[in-house]
Amino acid sequence: MENWIGIGIWISVGCMVGLLMRKVISRSEETPGHLPILLILSSFGATIGGMLGVGIFEFQEPAALSPGGMAGAIFFSFFISFIYRWGIRGLL
Which of 15, 87, 83 is nearest to 47 (CA)? Predict the structure, then answer.
C-alpha cells in the first residue's frame, strides 16, 4: 500500500515542479492551454524518474518513498519540464 502512496506523492511532486517551472521560465508568447500539458508531462517525468531512482539507488529494499526514488522523481520532473519549456515548446 505504501508504494501506491509513494507513486501518488511522485505525481503531486511532478505537478508542483511543473507549476514552479512555469513561474521560473516565463514565456511572453505563451498561448493558453499549455498548463495541463506541462502538468501531465511533469507528473509523467516524476513517475519515470522515481522508478529509475528506486531501481538504481534502492535495489536491496525497493520502496517508493525512499530517498533515491524522491530524488529521481524531482530530478527527472525538472528535466522533462525544462525540455518542454525551452526545447520542444519553442517548436510548437
Answer: 15
15 within a domain of the structure (yes/no):
no
At residue 44 the predicted structure's pLDDT band, cuts being 50, 70 and 90, is very high
Residue 14 lies in a domain: no
This prediction's pTM:
0.83
Lookup: cell for 28? 511572453
Q: The domain containing residue 66 runs over which residues? A: 2-7+33-91
Sign of CA dihedral 46, 51, 56, 60: positive
Q: List % helix, strand, coil for the chain (3-state, nearest 5).
A: 80, 0, 20
